Amino acid sequence: MLDFAIFAVTFLLALVGAVLYLYPASRQAAGIPGITPTEEKDGNLPDIVNNGSLHEFLVGLHERYGPVVSFWFGRRLVVSLGTVDVLKQHINPNKTLDPFETMLKSLLKYQSDNGSGSENHLRKKLYENSVTKSLQSNFALLLKLSEELLDKWLSYPETQHVPLSQHMLGFAMKSVTQIVMGSTFEDDQEVIRFQKNHGTVWSEIGKGFLDGSLDKSATRKKQYEDALMQLESVLKKIIKERKGRNFSQHIFIDSLVQGNLNDQQVLEDSMIFSLAGCIITAKLCTWAICFLTTSEEVQRKLHEEVDQVFGKGPITPEKIEHLRYCRQVLCETVRTAKLTPVSARLQDIEGKINQFIIPKETLVLYALGVVLQDPNTWPSPHKFDPDRFDDESAMKTFSLLGFSGTQECPELRFAYMVTTVLLSVLVKRLHLLSVEGQVIETKYELVTSSREEAWITVTKRH
After folding, report:
1. 362-379: buried (b, 16+ CB within 10 Å) or exposed (e) per residue?
2. Annotated binding site
3. Could you give the CA distance from residue 162 to residue 456 in angstroms, rounded to a whole number?
4. What sections of 138-242 are H helices per DSSP?
């Protein structure tokens, strides 16, 4: 079972930092092709910086040395895997704790994940079920928020440029805060306050674990700690209010409170979902709409499917399940955007990939961004083509990578549902158009985004 969470990339640098401090250094590359450290202390960090991002560094490294490559984070040997075949070899025998949760908890200094394997498994299942139930219970809310955005866009003149990234972040924040924490966040001022603190915490996640920059800046560290404390304060208050009471709206926290978890565990799981859910949802919505504006044919086919499935009737959870082409659009969005270009694991025991031995306690990267653009796996890899997911083998590969099927992490499943509802509402009434002459440059950070604001225009369908 592929038990790593697909969005572990969001907290990769936190894991790197933990590894650098928790495990002794090794200088043996075990005969794996790759590069030697550029600097004794920093390893190949200067090379990563010079390439612009870890993803872009890995693209060049795999092009030069093949599917299994090595380099150095500080004094730590790192092995990167860059094809489906080598990923299959590594995934199957490796059973480790979910890096998504482990890395974020390391950064936030959370300590509650010390139960037995069976206890941790039950907690993970409760977390997943909490997402599922909160989505089911709040479908009408998702529809309402989507329709509010539609009405806003319908009110614009057709020449109006819409700041897509900004609007999608606001939409995602409203969706996640109300579904996780309830009706308190019907107040826009509460959402704005949450968004500010969320932005401060998120911008520091992963920072400073390679260069210690957060600890070196007293101002930044205080801003981060204050923002985190305020987020925790809000969650603690809501957890206390919801305990032992019934409300008409069932939210994410309710399922956790009703499970066999203590208050600290409820706080941690709520924080993890709140932090990651907002960003992942916002970026998936943004990229999906961006790609639709560049392909009139894909948008036409999606509109036809939405019209066929819903007609003049309401959008319902039951009918949403029949939007097969929409799901293909979202899968292709994740693939083309390389939404999360890297994930990570720590090698528990000595392993072997092809003829190469991977030493124990090696940091192993899954170069997902490289794999998702591999022409041997994806014909015409740079083309946005949702029809490629008509092929069952393509979906199987996507599932293996953790982007679909039973291996989907709960945050991705949430983002898929929210984006599906939003696209159904928008495409039914609007043509989504790109701004002439705009070139959207990609920024490969922890989650892939556009380097500048992505602008679109909209026109009414007749």
Report:
1. bbbbbbbbbbbbbeebbe
2. 409
3. 5
4. 139-154, 164-181, 188-204, 213-216, 218-242
Q: How many other C-beta atoms can be found within 10 angstroms of the C-beta atom of residue 304?
A: 12
* Sheet arrangement for strand 68-73: 68-73, 76-81, 363-366, 343-346
Q: Identify residue 159 by its one-letter amino acid code.
A: T
Strand partners, 460: 430
Bind-site residues for heme: 409
Q: Which of 103, 255, 122 is nearest to 179 (CA)?
A: 255
What lies within 8 Å, CB to CB, of 222 at 6+ separation is: none
Provide the β-strand partners of residue 162.
456
How far is the C-alpha of 198 from the C-alpha of 21, rounded, in Å? 27
Q: Where are the alpha helices (DSSP H) in 92-137?
A: 99-108, 117-137
Distances (CA, A) of 130 to 115, 187, 192, 257: 20, 24, 25, 10
* pLDDT means over runs of 10, the chain (462 residues): 37 48 47 90 87 92 96 89 92 52 66 64 84 94 97 94 96 96 92 94 67 73 93 95 89 92 91 91 97 96 97 94 97 95 82 88 90 95 96 91 81 94 97 93 88 95 86
Q: Minimal CA–CA distance to 410: which of 301, 274, 229, 312?
A: 274
**Under DSSP, is residue 390 helix (H, G, I), strand (E, B) or coil?**
helix
> Where along the chain do its domains lie?
1-112+340-372
Separation CA 376–CA 144 (nearest Å): 43
Q: At residue 242, what are phi and psi to the nearest 5 degrees?
A: -85, -20
pLDDT of residue 376: 94
Spatial contact of 441 and 450, defined as CB atoms under 8 Å apart = yes
Q: Residue 263: is it exposed, middle or buried by C-beta count within 10 angstroms (0-12/13-18/19+)?
A: middle
Alpha-carbon span 9 to 341, nearest angstrom: 7
Helices (H) and strands (E) in the chain, counts: 19, 11
Max distance between CA atoms of the chain, in angstroms, equals: 66
Instruction: Render 413-434 in DSSP notation, one character per residue.
Output: HHHHHHHHHHHHHHHHHEEEEE
Rounded Cα–Cα distance for residues 54 and 157 (Å): 41
Query: Do 69 and 82 form a contact (C-beta atoms < 8 A)?
Result: yes
Closest residue by Cα to residue 9 from 103, 138, 149, 97? 103
Distance set, CA 275 to CA 159, 214, 228, 262, 287 (Å): 35, 19, 11, 20, 19
**CB of 291 closer than 8 Å to CB of 333:** yes
Host H or E run for residue 352: strand 351-353
